User: Fold this.
Amino acid sequence: MTIAARIRAWLELLRVPNLPTVASNAILGAWLGFVAQGRLPAIPFAGWQPQAATRPIEFRDLFIVAHVALGLCGLYLFGLILNDLFDLATDRRERPQRPLPSRRIGRWQAAIAAVALLVAGVWLLLSVNRSPLLVGLVSALVAAIVLYDLLHRRVAFAVVLPAACRGLAVLVAAVATFSGSAFEESWLPVGDRELVVVLVPAAVVAIFVLAVSLVARREVEAGPRRLCTKCGQTVLDEAVRCPECGEAAPPRESRVARRSDLGSAPKWVVACGMLALVATAVLGAPAWTPEFGEPFGSTQLIRSLAVLGCLGAWLAFATRSTPETPVPKLVGRWLGSLCLLDATMLAPLGPLPVLLCVGLFAASSLLAKRFAGS
Assistant:
């Protein structure tokens, strides 16, 4: 196998179109952490509102954001590889072209890479802030990743775990921005109002991912019931031979589901994304305080237009499909649109985080043209 083919195999295994969405969630969480501490951007061209009364965000804070984004991406990739390792038997039957069942990547190579990504991700996150709260959140995130990979084929409720992972990722990024000295007086160095600023957007991300995950469970639809080719007896899914005559059972049939098979599910996914407007209302509230001017001033109008622009772009992208659109492609598109949802919720806080999220959305869209995200 050529070097280019090996690189492509790893990129397929890691589902690279989804990586920018993890970085976008990290940016969302980090900016929520800054706002919870009373800090807003003061970088040139980074804010369309006056500076906050406390210490503003500086260039060096962007290195913390990058550190957290890389750490979360490491944990995400760890989960993806672990998922493919646990699902190897299923993928051999339903997705034989994947890197592991096609043996383009060895199982031991994938296992070593997963462990390395886990260690690197945890180290990157805890090197920023080693408070007990962050350690607990990172531990919960790793546990949710492993539990999902273990249980998603066995129990129905495991579908909530990807949503929990995304919500926890936002919380981890927010807590990582808190200074170490802030934890000396309290394990949670923010008030109730600031806590709402962090929790509401994290909940919106989790709810949207839950809706997408419910649809993703229907990516492959079962074909018609299996009938013995010799005697016509119905053969159960788990049977390898006909219970009546002992003839070898015909192969299991399945097909990739289309959007038309989903009924009203796509509308519910879009409705869950629209909850981002609730988060923008919460995040817009700090800009209404006296040091930021009048609630209906020109800066508030710019913020509102930015919210509507990002939300409109998300709606156009999330609803662009036909009845024949394959569900895996639709799911990948919805996951990629997370960047635009993050941009929508961040729009009240200035153009810098919005531009970062929009840039990540462009990267996700370009990667999705060459690699599958679901």
